[in-house]
Amino acid sequence: MTASPFKMILILVILAAGGFSIFYATKGRAPACQGGGKYMSTLSECRAWGLEETLCSAAIDNARAIAARAAPKTETMFQCETRFSDCFENPAGGFTPRPSFCLKSTSEPSEIRYLEFEADRRNRRITKEVRIN
Fold first, then answer.
1. Coil, helix or strand for 15?
2. Helix or strand run (H / E) with residue 132
3. How do the pLDDT tens digits run along the chain, 133 residues long?
4. Contact between 28 and 18 (Cβ < 8 Å)
């Protein structure tokens, strides 16, 4: 029994629409590093990628130093946690959002970003990714 050309075209259109829908639904959720780096924000995530602890701690310190200079600061931890997803105490005073970054084999983090809370039209709390470059 042979399938009619109309059925084959219809099946291909349905498969293409389904694939595009899945791609569109997931493309903004998983951050990807350009150039094959690993995405992380904490020492345990860095160690989970199989990198050395000294390299991880140097990269995290570099990313935090960049975030401390570029990201907005708040006076108290409460203010920081109501505005950002995760915070750390800035050595210069105040609190700063904890950065996420991409790391290659060197200890220089790239594509540094942090998550900021904002409200949509219905006053729901959503996160917005803010890049520091």
1. helix
2. strand 125-132
3. 566 888 889 999 999 888 888 777 766 555 567 777 788 888 998 899 888 889 999 999 999 999 999 999 999 999 999 899 889 998 888 999 999 998 887 768 888 999 898 887 888 888 888 888 7
4. no
Q: Give the C-alpha separation, 93 to 102, whole Å.
A: 26
Q: Whole-angstrom Cα distance, residue 120 to residue 110? A: 29
Which residues, including other chains, have CB under 8 Å from residue 51's CB and lie 6 or more apart? 38, 103
Cβ(87)–Cβ(95) below 8 Å: yes
Is 72 within 8 Å of 3 (Cβ atoms)?
A: no
pLDDT of 89:
92
Torsion sign, CA atoms 28, 55, 97, 68: negative
Give this prediction's pTM: 0.69
How many C-beta atoms surround the C-beta of residue 111 within 10 A? 19
Only one residue has tokens 């595009």, namely 20
- How many CB atoms sit inside 10 A of residue 72's CB? 15
SS (H, E, C) 46-73: HHHCCCCHHHHHHHHHHHHHHHHHHCCC
